[in-house]
Every structure is written in structure tokens, then in C-alpha cells.
Write a structure and sequence with these properties.
Phosphorylase Kinase, domain 1; Aminoglycoside 3'-phosphotransferase, Chain: A, domain 2; 2 domains; five-stranded antiparallel β-sheet; 15% strand
């Protein structure tokens, strides 16, 4: 992981009126960004720099525009009192500094830890907070948000790629020990595909969703929600997909009773702020299963693209874990209506 150059630090300190800046610790590498911690006379800040070959490849738009778009959302949320760290403004009034062709944005550093999956108090707070986010973003101009193909279309594309990848494995599933998991996964995919096709997806309420509302982006200090971060996957989509992304990540891969309790806590807390329509209630269980399957689909692709035998075996075990997670989530499908019935009777 690279260290920031002294001239880069000096440029940043001058542009953002930080006085001076030094890098603290090692940078953290995410899927799309590298994040550095800066120590300055004004306090600690987080420096975010896009990773080349990530967003450009994934979204087909410029790194600079994606960063600007996310920063506009940060500012909009901060103006409405939402717990999101708004980017600092430069002397020129921008949120971004470009140094030697690389874009940088600086945010207040958030002291907090990722949400604990099994902590029901944190899960409830995360549900309320997502409801607040959706309420604030309901009137956010669509022209200022990114758009892409709706999730069912993207899911189908990934399923088609999965079929090609499985064929490319050419007898290896048995050697990798994933033959049984793969058979179960194929049967589940067919059922999920049909369920997605039956949804009136185009009629579900849409807005600028967070797009990656997972535990790693929901930071807590104890049971106090410190901040929601990483809005760089935000886009126009059905709002129930945000709930599905969260629940797919929150629900444990063991203990059905515990999973149901967490789902109930999250949904009930969300609906204290935003009521889900009947169509959304019907769609949510399908979308949760599809989101869990989505992650397993990625694992098969990674297995195929791996040449090293040990790494291939590790990724095969990871695939089995995701399939096990999907199995658990599908086992509570008959209980979703109970959750919504309990909420409507309150």
C-alpha cells in the first residue's frame, strides 16, 4: 500500500486549509477507493482517493464525476442532519483536489466500528437510520443521481455469466468439494429467477438508494450510530433493494430463530419512519435471497479466474459458506409474512 508523497500532503493541507497534514498508519483499500487517515492541527480527517480500473470499469463513467456525485449526496444529507461526514471544501469551493491526475476528497474522520451483525439494538438503529435516509432522499433530484440497469436485469446477466463459468470449471467441482453446494445453488437460482420475474419491479417506489448499506458502512460507538459512510454506489433504484442489501448482510448464516428476530427488528424499525407498500413487502424476501445469491455468483467467477490451487480451494470454501448462508435465508421465507402481519397489527 502506497504512502502519500510529502508534496501531495502539502498540497492537500494548503487546498483544504488544514495547516499541515501527516499520514497516520496504513491506508485501507476498499473495492473502489483507498482511504488514508490524516492528522492535522484541525483534527483527524479521512482522505479518499479512487482506485483506477475500479469505478471506470464497473460503471462506465469517470472517476471524477462519480466522486462529485457522491459528495453532493454527502452534503445534501448533512444539511438535513443525517449522520454522514460531509466533505470539506477547498479554498476554491470545490470538494475535490486533483493532484498529478489523481482525485482526492477529504472528510471528517469518524471514530466508530462496523455494526455487529448479531447486535439487535444496533440492527434496530440501522433500520431507523435507513428509513431516515430514504425520507430525506425522496425529493432528491433524479438528474443528480447515477442510473443503471434495474437489479433483476443485472442479476440475470450475472446468472448467464455463472452458467458460462460453471461450464469452464470442466469437472473441477468434485475435486474442489463443492459439487453438492453447486447443485443446491443451481436449483435455488432457478427459483429466485422465476420469483424475480413475477415481481412488478418497475412499479416499486424508486429513489436514490445508498446501494451498499452493509455493516462495514454503518459505524457505531457502542450502541450509538456514529455515521453512515460510502455513498459511492448510490444510484436510482427501488428503495426496497436497499433493505434487501442490508438484510442479506445482517442475517446470520446460522440459527433461523435469531435471523428472524434480526429481520423483524430491522424492518419494524425502518417502518417507524417509512411504511413499506404491499408490493414492497412481497418483493423484499425475493430480493434478500437474490442479494445473498449475488455474492455467491461472484465467488464462482473468482474460482474460474484463479490458477493457484491453494487459492482456488480457499475460494471454493468461501463459495460453500455463501451457499450455506443462502440455504439459511431461504429456510425463513415462510416467516416473512408473519413479520409484516405483526407490524400491520400494531
Amino acid at each position: 500500500m502506497e504512502q502519500l508523497r510529502p508534496d501531495t500532503l502539502e498540497n492537500l493541507a494548503t487546498s483544504y486549509r488544514l495547516g499541515s497534514a501527516i499520514q497516520s498508519g496504513k491506508p485501507a483499500k476498499g473495492a473502489h477507493y483507498v482511504v488514508y487517515r490524516l492528522r492535522t492541527p484541525r483534527g483527524d480527517f479521512a482522505l479518499l482517493k479512487p482506485r483506477p480500473l475500479s469505478i471506470n470499469e464497473s460503471y462506465g463513467t469517470s472517476l471524477l464525476e462519480e466522486l462529485r456525485r457522491a459528495n453532493r449526496i454527502f452534503h445534501h444529507l448533512a444539511r438535513h442532519g443525517f449522520p454522514a461526514p460531509a466533505p470539506l471544501l477547498t479554498r476554491a469551493g470545490s470538494t475535490i483536489v486533483t493532484i498529478k491526475g489523481e482525485h482526492h476528497a477529504v472528510y471528517p474522520y469518524v471514530h466508530g466500528r462496523a455494526m455487529v451483525r448479531g447486535n439487535i439494538r444496533q440492527v434496530a438503529k440501522a433500520g431507523v437510520t435507513l428509513g431516515s435516509y430514504h425520507r430525506i432522499m425522496a425529493d432528491y433530484p433524479k438528474r443528480m443521481s447515477r442510473s443503471e440497469e434495474p437489479f433483476p436485469s443485472r442479476f440475470q446477466d450475472r446468472v448467464d455469466l455463472f452458467t458460462e463459468n460453471v461450464e469452464a470449471l470442466d469437472g473441477q467441482p468434485s475435486a474442489l468439494g463443492i459439487e453438492a453446494s453447486l447443485d443446491y445453488f443451481k436449483d435455488s437460482l432457478l427459483d429466485i429467477e422465476l420469483s424475480l420475474l413475477r415481481l412488478s419491479y418497475e412499479n416499486l417506489p424508486q429513489l436514490t438508494i445508498h446501494g451498499d448499506y452493509r455493516r462495514q458502512n454503518i459505524l457505531f460507538e457502542g450502541d450509538r450510530l456514529a455515521a453512515v459512510i460510502d455513498f459511492h454506489r448510490s444510484r436510482i433504484e427501488v428503495r426496497s433493494l436497499d433493505l434487501a442489501i442490508a438484510l442479506a448482510d445482517i442475517l446470520p448464516s446460522t440459527s433461523n430463530g435469531h435471523a428472524l428476530g434480526l429481520a423483524r427488528s430491522f424492518i419494524n424499525s425502518y417502518e417507524k419512519v417509512q411504511q413499506l407498500s404491499n408490493d414492497e413487502q412481497e418483493a423484499l424476501p425475493v430480493l434478500v435471497e437474490a442479494r445473498v445469491a449475488w455474492r455467491a455468483l461472484r465467488r464462482i467467477r473468482r474460482i474460474v479466474n484463479t490458477k493457484d490451487k491453494k487459492k482456488m480451494l480457499r475460494r471454493a470454501r468461501k463459495f460453500q459458506l455463501y451457499v450455506s448462508h443462502l440455504r439459511r435465508v431461504r429456510m425463513i421465507r415462510s416467516s416473512w409474512k408473519q413479520i409484516f402481519a405483526e407490524e400491520s397489527s400494531r
